[in-house]
Write a structure and sequence with these properties.
By secondary structure, the chain is an all-beta fold. Helices cover 3% and strands 47% of the residues.
Length: 638
């Protein structure tokens, strides 16, 4: 554009034309109010971002500007542009600018839309349901669409398929009692609801005891029949857990071990030590009462997300939802010194002066007193599904329903009776053992000075309808159901690499012969009708939620769900071949990978274990390839 002398308005035109080349300004010579050449543009922004509005006008004199929000002037917003930093939902609305010159003014506007992350307006609430009833949790949230939902059991167990604002649990079982929450998300953020507790009340059951008849702990009080869901035997006392979450005790009360806190009305599990008692609340916290000579009733501050507990002589263990173990109480012999780095635990047991942890891979970790070799499991012990600890000895239940014992054998407590091969539950006492068979009957062995192994006849025959056992110092207690199947040891989650084998196993008790049907994501698996299910050569398509339906003529029950995770496979890309070897690139999510080679796609050999960094790839060289006529490669994440 050429520069020339002109009236003031023409100079203004030249400046505006430079600001907006290619725009045509009409009626300039005649003067008039400002004309909008480029109006402010409507915008859609995410919370926290920046919004910019601007306007370009023509005017025969220099104009003034005033930006407005919903018709109200914005202080100091008097330039050709207006910027909003850290946009919030309250900034959404109509923005306009009034441009004025000596003749008049013009107003032009634009709309700001703000996309917000979810906000929960109604959290799920606690529910109390009888077993086999349905339970429905719901959550309400606002935020920019689309909203996505994921329900969780405790804090780490994601419930497959539960992705709506309502969680529907059909035919609820005792194992489903606990904490539920929902994660609500959209493309702009996520929020987690507060926990809601599901309390499941079980059928009316009755308790039975035997052992030292001189102790009140061996005599079931009058009226203790019906409405109980669990039992526990301690030193000289017994506990029973009612279906309403209230704990009832009988026997010795010298240390107040029979007096739970008055507000304990939501217990879901119990344990009994020598002279103290424990209860796990439905909210994942622990309550302790009774003897505190060794701080065994001083529950660690902040202890939460507990899914199981165990009481020893004077110490306790708590299993957390993330697979870690917390211990407290007496530590004379290291019984509360949990080995550093212990994780992935699925079962725990507390003995008199030692402790056990069963890991997901089937290995057993021990700590504490080893006076009787109780910290040394027998060589070759595999396939363990449950553990129990007594006074210097231990029991392990294998997936084939056999029992292995080790440690102190002064009273024959580690001499497992021959032919005992249909066991569903185990319990180690002072110097005796009690087991529950799959057919609902009980067997016992070991010390019998005070009748510890004199099991009442009505408990030793098939179809006794017993569903739980617990061995104390010199007595035992059992719980009778209605004969329908009850899962005693549920399966646990598995995580394997592609091509590996995953096995789910459980134990159950009930009258008559039990039938089993495994399911994947709620659908029956053809031919999967044993107590355990083995998934060989697991692939990504095999991942999902596995459960088992157990039935007999009396009723049907479902196991807890167990999730199979098949780790993502790796991608191997050839990069070239030279005198140094064969070059290839391993690509996959960050993690530890195993690289295998094969000459024939049948026999595979591991040649490298390495870590893929956050960048997502790792370049490798196989120097041995120069001497091979052909070679195949594969990789998977550990």
């Amino acid at each position: 554009m050429k520069t020339r002398r002109s009236p003031a308005g023409a100079v203004c035109l030249s400046l505006l034309a430079l600001l907006a080349p290619g725009l045509t300004v009409k009626n300039f010579a005649q003067g008039g109010p400002p004309q909008v050449l480029v109006p402010p543009q409507s915008q859609t922004n995410v919370v926290g971002s920046t919004a910019d509005f601007s306007v370009v006008v023509s005017s025969f004199t220099y104009p003034t500007y005033q930006w407005r929000f919903n018709g109200v002037n914005i202080a100091n917003a008097t330039n050709t542009s207006y910027t909003l930093f850290n946009v919030q939902t309250t900034n959404a609305g109509d923005y306009s600018v009034a441009v004025t010159n000596a003749v008049g003014y013009v107003i032009t506007n634009a709309t700001l839309t703000v996309l917000a992350p979810p906000v929960i307006t109604a959290h799920p609430v606690n529910l109390n349901r009888p077993e086999t009833a349905n339970a429905n949790f719901s959550v309400t949230a606002t935020g920019a669409a689309p909203l996505s939902y994921q329900w969780r059991f405790y804090t780490t167990n994601f419930l497959a398929g539960q992705i709506t604002s309502t969680l529907s649990l059909v035919n609820v079982q005792a194992w489903q009692a606990g904490l539920y929450s929902a994660v609500v998300s959209n493309p702009y953020g996520a929020v987690t609801s507060s926990n809601a507790t599901l309390t499941v009340t079980l059928p009316s059951w009755t308790a039975g005891c035997w052992g030292n008849t001189a102790e009140p702990a061996s005599t079931v009080p009058v009226g203790l029949s019906g409405g109980y869901q669990a039992v526990a035997a301690g030193g000289k006392h017994s506990l029973a857990l009612k279906t309403n979450g209230v704990v009832f005790g009988w026997g010795d009360n010298t240390f107040g071990q029979l007096d739970p806190p008055p507000d304990l009305t939501n217990a879901i599990k119990i344990a009994a030590g020598m002279n103290h008692s424990l209860a796990l609340r439905g909210d994942g916290t622990v309550v302790a009462w009774g003897d505190n000579s060794f701080d065994q009733t001083n529950v660690p501050s902040g202890l939460s997300n507990v899914i199981s507990l165990a009481a020893g002589d004077h110490h306790n263990l708590a299993l957390l939802a993330d697979g870690k173990v917390i211990a407290w109480g007496q530590d004379n012999l290291g019984e509360t010194v949990v080995p550093p780095g212990l994780t992935d635990v699925v079962r725990i047991a507390a003995g008199y002066y030692h402790s056990l942890a069963l890991k997901r891979d089937g290995s057993i970790v021990t700590w504490g007193d080893n006076s009787h070799g109780e910290l040394t499991p027998p060589p070759g012990l595999t396939g363990v599904i449950a553990v129990s600890a007594g006074n210097g000895f231990n029991l392990a239940l294998r997936t084939n329903r056999s029992v292995v014992a080790w440690g102190d054998n002064a009273s024959g407590q580690t001499n497992v009776p021959a032919g005992l091969n249909t066991v569903a539950a185990i319990s180690a006492g002072g110097a005796h053992c009690v087991v529950l068979r799959e057919n609902g009957s009980v067997a016992a062995w070991g010390q019998n000075f005070l009748g510890e192994t004199n099991v009442p006849f009505i408990f030793t025959s098939a179809n006794s309808a017993l569903i739980a056992v617990s061995a104390g110092a010199h007595h035992s207690v059992t719980l009778k159901g209605n004969g329908a199947p009850v899962v005693v040891n549920p399966p646990w989650d598995q995580s394997v690499s592609p091509g590996a084998t995953a096995m789910f196993a459980l134990t159950a008790a009930g009258n008559n012969t039990l039938s089993y049907q495994w399911r994947l994501n709620g659908t029956n698996i053809a031919g999967a009708t044993q107590r355990f299910f083995t998934r060989t050569n697991a692939q990504l398509a095999d991942a999902g939620v596995y459960s088992c339906v157990i039935a007999n003529p009396v009723g049907t029950n479902s196991s807890a769900s167990a999730t199979l995770t098949v780790k993502s496979g790796a991608v191997l890309t050839p990069l070239g071949y030279d005198a140094g070897g064969f070059h290839l690139r391993l690509t996959g999510p960050p993690g530890v990978y195993v690289v295998e080679i094969s000459p024939n796609l049948t026999a595979w050999f591991s040649v490298l274990t390495n870590t893929v960094p956050p960048a997502g790839f790792l370049d490798l060289i196989d120097p041995t390839a120069v001497s091979a006529s052909r070679r195949f490669y594969r990789a998977y994440q550990q």
